[in-house]
Amino acid sequence: MKRVTLEEVARVAGVSRATASRVVNGASSVDESLRHAVQRAISSTGYLPNIAARSLVTRRADAIGLLLPDERRMDGDPHLASVVSGVTRVVRPLGVHLVLMMTGPGTREQAMSDLRCGRLDGVILVHTDPADPVPGQLIEAGLPVVLAGRPLEPMPITYVDVNQTAGAALAACRLKSLQCNRIATITGPQDTPAGQDRLAGFLAEVPDAVVVHGDFTRQSGVAAMEHLIRRCPDVDGVFVASDLMANGAIPVLHRSGRKVPDDVAVVGFDDSSAALTSEPELTTVRQPITDMAAEMARQLLRQITEPRSPAVSVVFEPSLVVRDSG
Amino acid sequence: MKRVTLEEVARVAGVSRATASRVVNGASSVDESLRHAVQRAISSTGYLPNIAARSLVTRRADAIGLLLPDERRMDGDPHLASVVSGVTRVVRPLGVHLVLMMTGPGTREQAMSDLRCGRLDGVILVHTDPADPVPGQLIEAGLPVVLAGRPLEPMPITYVDVNQTAGAALAACRLKSLQCNRIATITGPQDTPAGQDRLAGFLAEVPDAVVVHGDFTRQSGVAAMEHLIRRCPDVDGVFVASDLMANGAIPVLHRSGRKVPDDVAVVGFDDSSAALTSEPELTTVRQPITDMAAEMARQLLRQITEPRSPAVSVVFEPSLVVRDSG
DNA sequence: CTGAAAGCGCTTACAG
DNA sequence: CTGAAAGCGCTTACAG
């Protein structure tokens, strides 16, 4: 398994290394006959360009990072596969590698170094802690970065999000059209944009809704529902701000003798796998995760190609998926 | 943001580039005072080695690939986050990147090229199609690769697996100790090692078990259970070969008026997130996914460092997690 | 233990 | 359009 180099291709094709390089990189103007000769040489030798050598001169790694929260927190977000899938879709045809980094001790600093030393061209940040200083440092350093989801504090950074407010409104309207009279919501954590927006969007439609707080975890869903039925026994419609919480909440309803959706209608948010593993299956607000991830990749790529291009935010519209729970 | 090179570090420290390089790479024997001078120069300049340049000469990418089935099939495997977490744990301290590749058109060829052109030092193959020729090609080419799970056909390849047979036996014993008389199993696909072994392990303990086939998907779990209660109405204990199938199967039992575990005990396999989102929560066979993934990474790293080292298989013992379903 | 020098494989001004 | 040449930033025999 000898390494074939450009040098060799050039010799076989009877051209200079420069010309060979040009056809490898699809440069515009190379004589047709030479181009063919080089192409033949490439396939006859089985040539593959050495990426390290190329990187060294182009100063591009052709790799981007996906920074994820750690395993524990990932559990609250069943979207990983969809995110990877969406990013992959846009990035692979370009030969760009997707490197995964799960948050652990020193991960973010690691990512910063990788960026600075040119090992990564940019990063996508998922579920970053609102207090995390990394996004700020990144944009300050002018490094390509995009956020999954709106940052807590306004900052000049590119992000992709779903219209959380509109999604919550969709849930509210569903509950109202079901003739629910006593409507409640189990919220997400109020120190995150998603948690805040879903509550605000819901209250805008149902100002007198009973509000019980959760934190997006399944466990918090059961606790919140237990609290809710104690506090408001005649509740007949509830918007649970994440499918995972809804998945925890529904059995509580059952155990209390209430049927879903007959006695209490339940609408979730996310359309994650938890929506399908619930019984009954969840009516929920869908975010187009894969498309959103693809867009994040596109935005990142643009920033890489055009440094210092202006920050933008791209917001996708959610949709209601009606199933059996409400 | 000027790039600091080794050259510069050397000049600041008043040594040659070679010496600077040696301390950067922790080479054994460099004079204490020179070492210190270089270290000072490194931190004062904020030096970070250019990985591409290093790669070019060391011929190592310091990156490994994780080849996954596509999103659809991932759905049947809720372990992605755990796998990534386990691999990351061993790979990050070494500065090795984890690049994710989801199967799509041309992915496997892509991975082969990346390996050949030195962009990846090795790959971990997850859930490869039994008919996939890639693993074979890889080992034939002498490229570092490890499989998640035993290959269907015996081949000289390193893999890490859980003892599927023993796991199924654990489930069988649980059902027997619960005094179940009419025992059944819903199997995984019989063209996969996991599907085969879980059935064989179970039958070894309960030879007269009723067997209904599934394919590890949730949907197949509901179909199989519907079939089962029709065919064997007095069933009182069932081993479902994946949590996801069990998650689909339990509501079928409920709808038929049977209580779990009082009328029918259910034991799953995987201890995946579906075990917790089931109602009641699933008693199941746990595989230590994160540890297994870490071991895959270690094995791969060893192959990279010691080419042509012999193929080994590492088998982890499963354990029974008793919860509410059986 | 240390340094001068060669070389890893590519791209890209620069001439022609 | 094409080629000779320089250079990307590092590591590593090879002498000393």
Describe this entry's structure for a reader.
Two copies of one chain form a homodimer. Chain A has 326 residues and is of the alpha/beta class. Chain A folds into three domains: 6-49, no CATH class; 63-162 and 289-318, 3-Layer(aba) Sandwich (Rossmann fold); 164-286, Rossmann fold (3-Layer(aba) Sandwich), CATH 3.40.50. In chain A, 45% of the residues lie in helices and 17% in strands. Chain A contains 14 helices and twelve strands. In chain A, the strands form two sheets. Chain A has a six-stranded parallel sheet, sandwiched between helices. The N and C termini of chain A lie far apart (62 Å). Chains A and B meet through helix 4, strand 1, helix 6, strand 2 and helix 7 of A and helix 4, strand 1, helix 6, strand 2 and helix 7 of B. The structure holds a DNA duplex (16 and 16 nucleotides).
